Amino acid sequence: MVSRHEDVRTVLNDRRFSADRQHPDFPQLVKGEAAARRPDEERTLIAMDAPEHGPARRAVLGEFTVRRLEALRPRIQEIVDGQIDALLAGPRPGDLVTTLGGVVGPARGPLWTITSGRVAPAQPRTTRPGPPQNALARTARTCRDPACSLRVHISSRDLT
Predict the structure, then answer these.
(1) pLDDT tens-digit map of 75-109
(2) For residue 139, how many other CB atoms are within 10 A of its CB?
(3) Structural domain count of the chain
């Protein structure tokens, strides 16, 4: 897996890498997976390699202009808000942890406050925080509710 822009560009331009699940060297996550792949299964744009990828990409490119995507922003925001509300209305992963740990009722609130400020990164920082990270850090300082933080971050257009 690569995440740096330069590495991603290298992988995307190197013919030794393939997105085609039918490619004989495509990695298998489960033993025997390659044998289970059907050569006639319909392929999506994301699972195509050049030169087949180019014409398929050009066929849909006009649907993804900045203007069209900006027009979709209110609907996307509505969907995201609805999903966050549904997520917060149901049981949360933290509820499972506190229930298994025997922390119930009103004690959960203080536990969240205590632990949310004590989570340390698992690995040393290798990059300097840029604008999206800074925006998220500002939000975290002013908005302790996870749903609030997420909404502020999404609304700020700092997503990349």
Answers:
(1) 999 999 999 998 888 777 666 666 766 666 665 66
(2) 19
(3) 1
